[in-house]
Amino acid sequence: MCGVFFSLHGYDIEENTSSQELVYSLCANLRKANAERGPDRQSSIVRRISDPQDLKRPVRTAEFYGSELRLRGEAAIQQPHELNGNILCWNGEIFGGLEVGPQENDGVKLLEALAAAKEADEIIGIFGRLEGPYGFVYYHAALNQILFARDPLGRRSLLVHRPTAELPALLISSVSSGTHPNLNFEEVSTDCIHCLDIPTFDRSYAVTSNFVEACESSTSQLPRCPQDLKLPYAAPANVNPAIPPAEFPQVQTLGQIPIYLQGPVDEFLAILDKATWLRVRDIPRTGAEGSARVSVLFSGGIDSTVVAYLAHKHVPLDEPIDLFNVGFENPRKMKLQQAGNIGALPRRQQKQKKQALENGPPPAEPSYRVPDRVTGLQELEELRRLCPGRTWNFVEVNVPYEETQNARERVEDLMLPSRTVMDLSLALALYFAARGKGQIRSAPAADPVPYTSPARVVLSGLGSDELLGGYGRHRTAYGYGGWPAVIEELQLEIDRIPTRNLGRDDRIISSHGKETRHPFLSLDVVSFVAGLPVHYKMDPRLETGTGDKMLLRLLTQKLGLVEASCRKKRAMQFGSHSARMDGEKKGDAALAE
């Protein structure tokens, strides 16, 4: 994980205008924000091109900034990477498509390949053959172009502010530095590679002397997959459109795999297992010998449990795996729990009692026995039975209400440009969970001891619901439109992945100097699952806990994770009680300014 930042503007340090002061202040804040993502090393490269008529006044000043979180090799590598005038700011991991040795830096290897390219299509081809999450800014000296993009699924954050009259600068950054009335960051779209052509910029600026117009006229979008190229990782795969036959054998019990699904279950397991292995191998040790290098966002649900179990297969047995389980002190929830079941009361009385509880005094003692804590502890015991010899550090991350409120402004700044109530609920849960600071117990009845995880890699089970039909809306689609509606909804899920939560989640987790990795969102896993007939993945005719994500449930049973295989989906914000702390606001409501 790294932080990348790029700025292009027409100011120099010798100028003294309000716009210049604003640009330099924002640039300083953005460098600081990106340094948190890569605490091991930071550096900048600055390039200035002066106006021929006034050598003290630059036509443009470009700064390339990079910070490094060491997750390969024995020593941190300084970035931005530079080779023969080419400059690369790289935030990513290469899991396929380019040979990178255990002690080699993937950014260095990538720049070597990019610098050898002579045409833009060659650069496009290099990225179209890479599997892994990334966001980058790249200056190609021979072409005199600045390119920037995210991977096709948007697994890494990259934000862009396009020049305006109020803030005439092009700013590209892994993370924002908070709100500002003139700073208009948006997520970089993943459907193309963005290109700023410097010669075109210079010609436009020479005519107009207008920085905003020069940027607009010189920026274009390059297709990720030109028609004459076949690139395996240029875009996520499309969902198999085949309609299931009128009759096919239904799954009777998760413990018995039908013959027609035995092959797909085995193939799915092999591909998911490889994706997990690629994401836990060769991680350099930064803590003490025998300390954890890998952690998992762990609710005890089917997704996080499968990821934890597969990680266990590839992490040396003599080192622990940390399981982050977060629970919030939520005074509103605790009051409602104290009141007991009021669902049988008439609706008006329910509302009156809820209001009375919310306006009353808080409970005397905070409780962190949230739903995810209960299922997490249950699943911990199943993992211990199946994985003898493994130390599982079940990290109880207990977040007092006051600490949540104190962190709120910080979390809101990190998640920008995301700004809804649901964004905040999820971001709070991720922020405290990924920090990995809590308590662990040597045995269920033992006293807890404080613990802070040294693991820099955080595994997540995100993606399985989108790929395998795990949401209630997939069952709803079947109800109104049958299998064609389900197929359409699953395609929409894949199409929406780059624009939903991944950028926000990356900004939150990376603020702790950690990197999140998603085995289910390997493009190889996505391609395999998308290519399966829809009735291999799910069966909405079966009850919840069986028909949703059916293929994964069968796989989980095959692994011996019997309890996990039957667990129903529960959203993180409700399982951890990070949602609705201050009232019944709808999730899509915008946060107050």
UniProtKB/TrEMBL annotation:
<keyword id="KW-0061">Asparagine biosynthesis</keyword>
<feature type="compositionally biased region" description="Basic and acidic residues">
    <location>
        <begin position="579"/>
        <end position="593"/>
    </location>
</feature>
<dbReference type="GO" id="GO:0004066">
    <property type="term" value="F:asparagine synthase (glutamine-hydrolyzing) activity"/>
</dbReference>
<dbReference type="InterPro" id="IPR014729">
    <property type="entry name" value="Rossmann-like_a/b/a_fold"/>
</dbReference>
<keyword id="KW-0028">Amino-acid biosynthesis</keyword>
<dbReference type="InterPro" id="IPR051857">
    <property type="entry name" value="Asn_synthetase_domain"/>
</dbReference>
<dbReference type="InterPro" id="IPR001962">
    <property type="entry name" value="Asn_synthase"/>
</dbReference>
<dbReference type="Pfam" id="PF00733">
    <property type="entry name" value="Asn_synthase"/>
</dbReference>
<feature type="region of interest" description="Disordered">
    <location>
        <begin position="574"/>
        <end position="593"/>
    </location>
</feature>
<feature type="domain" description="Asparagine synthetase">
    <location>
        <begin position="291"/>
        <end position="332"/>
    </location>
</feature>
<keyword id="KW-0315">Glutamine amidotransferase</keyword>
<feature type="domain" description="Asparagine synthetase">
    <location>
        <begin position="482"/>
        <end position="579"/>
    </location>
</feature>
<dbReference type="InterPro" id="IPR029055">
    <property type="entry name" value="Ntn_hydrolases_N"/>
</dbReference>
<feature type="region of interest" description="Disordered">
    <location>
        <begin position="339"/>
        <end position="370"/>
    </location>
</feature>
<dbReference type="GO" id="GO:0006529">
    <property type="term" value="P:asparagine biosynthetic process"/>
</dbReference>
<protein>
    <submittedName>
        <fullName>Asparagine synthase</fullName>
    </submittedName>
</protein>
